[in-house]
């Protein structure tokens, strides 16, 4: 992994997050887990480069995020192999599977002790800045509630500072 300045990123974020997807990983070399996410935002807030990440509390990764200051967002690309990894990590729980072992992902430790993956074309290491809980009452557009209920609980929203960026 080669460290780059986050301001050098020139991805089309709508494509990168919405079509490519990402792995949200929390923890350290002793205990970590990752999950697939296809929702999120990147931007500029509080004079910092930030990402906004949405995680349901019932996800195994959520508990590990709560225990750690940092997390990583890893982008594997658009390959068939990447899609298999994203599908596995998005449908299986870290409570039941060692996802790195099952998918062949090679964990790599970042500068702050977070876990990234050797296969990632881009990894953003992020520090938690802010958290809020979504609730039905906060939705101004009630049609969006269709994403909840039988599909799971409301997301927690994390605003995280992008502290490091790495490319392959």
Automatic annotation (TrEMBL):
<comment type="similarity">
    <text>Belongs to the flavoredoxin family.</text>
</comment>
<dbReference type="InterPro" id="IPR012349">
    <property type="entry name" value="Split_barrel_FMN-bd"/>
</dbReference>
<dbReference type="InterPro" id="IPR052174">
    <property type="entry name" value="Flavoredoxin"/>
</dbReference>
<feature type="domain" description="Flavin reductase like">
    <location>
        <begin position="20"/>
        <end position="167"/>
    </location>
</feature>
<dbReference type="Pfam" id="PF01613">
    <property type="entry name" value="Flavin_Reduct"/>
</dbReference>
<protein>
    <submittedName>
        <fullName>Flavin reductase</fullName>
    </submittedName>
</protein>
<dbReference type="InterPro" id="IPR002563">
    <property type="entry name" value="Flavin_Rdtase-like_dom"/>
</dbReference>
């Amino acid at each position: 992994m080669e460290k780059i300045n986050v301001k050098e990123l020139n991805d089309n974020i709508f494509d990168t997050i919405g079509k490519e997807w990402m792995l949200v990983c929390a923890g350290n070399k002793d205990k970590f887990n990752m999950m697939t996410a296809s929702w999120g935002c990147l931007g500029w807030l509080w004079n910092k480069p930030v990402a906004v990440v949405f995680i349901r509390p019932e996800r195994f990764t959520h508990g590990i995020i709560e225990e750690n200051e940092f997390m990583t967002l890893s982008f594997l690309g658009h390959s068939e192999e990447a899609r298999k990894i994203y599908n596995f990590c998005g449908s299986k729980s870290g409570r039941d599977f060692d996802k790195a072992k099952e998918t062949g992902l090679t964990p790599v430790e970042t500068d702050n002790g977070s876990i990234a993956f050797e296969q990632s074309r881009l990894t953003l290491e992020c520090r938690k800045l802010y958290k809020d809980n979504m609730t039905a009452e906060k939705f101004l557009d009630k049609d969006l509630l269709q994403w909840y209920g039988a599909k799971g609980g409301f997301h927690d929203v994390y605003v995280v500072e992008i502290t490091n960026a790495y490319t392959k």
